[in-house]
Specification:
The protein is an alpha+beta fold. It is about 15% helix and about 35% strand. It folds into two domains: about 50-130, Sandwich (Immunoglobulin-like); about 135-305, Glucose Permease (Domain IIA), CATH 2.70.70. The strands form four sheets. Strands 10, 13, 14, 15, 16, 17, 18, 19, 20 and 21 form a ten-stranded antiparallel sheet that branches. The chain has a four-stranded antiparallel sheet with strand order 1-2-6-5, with no helix packed on it. It has a four-stranded antiparallel sheet with strand order 4-3-7-8, with no helix packed on it. The longest helix is centred in the N-terminal third of the chain and has 31 residues, at about 10-40. The N and C termini lie far apart (about 100 Å).
Amino acid sequence: MPMTTMTDAINPQHKLRGVGIINHAKIKIFIGIMAVVPIALGLPAKALEVQVIPNNPQLGDTISVVIEANAQEKTSNPTVTVGEKTYPAFEISPRQYRSFIPTTPLEKAGVRTIRVSGDGQEQNLSIQVRDRKFPVQRITLPPGKAGVDATAYELKRVAELKALQTPEKYWHGAFLTPNAGRTSTKYGVRRYYNGEFAKDYYHRGQDYAGAEGSSVVTPAAGRVALVGTVSQGFRVHGNVVGVDHGQGVVSIFMHLSRINVKEGDFVKAGQKIGAVGSTGAATGPHLHWGLYVNGQSVNPLPWISKKID
């Protein structure tokens, strides 16, 4: 009987099976690692996170679009487009941007599609803008009655104020009421003249029936960008102050009896800038405060009642 050694007693098939099992396990592990990589590469994190505030706006409201850029490297400011209009987006904190979309009483209620573009990505969001009933006034003018016409200089200076889109943000938190008087005419009032509806008219501001000489304060911090007087040709606005709050938001204060600031001054929230009067196209003492966002007159009250920061 042939003799066998200890090594001969080990079945060669067992050795092969052992090696095969080990190699097969290694292959399975390697394949498993390789399978994870394409999945991770195929699902990149969104570069832009977008929030729209408020989620149920109505005509006259300011729509705030807040954009968060997840990329760690420095990115360019995103763009925000609604229809044919593009609105600037300004940085409000590292990798966070905000754009304001104004709505007015002259628009129609309905769905707005907001397109946000940046870092090679684009997002489309739809938001429903609700209708709103604005007060209506009926005014009868006698035959041949002509209104006061603004001067070319007046119109030019006011247009320059409303067009400002300063990158710096000067205001913080909710706005203040600029005068202690009661509201005499609300924002958005529509009018009929001699029975005919003025389609392109709405009251572009909030009127306060403050007493002659009562204080007018700025509702938020900013830089004085306009000081105009009747003697300079401000026939409609009267003595007027315009404050740039930054990032496309400006205030205008009309019909003042006195002005306490000059162009270029930086004013704090609550600082006195003038006094109520009846200069310009005014039938009595009152303050007209207009708030403009990216060139359009918006309802100031939401800026007072809630924090748009």
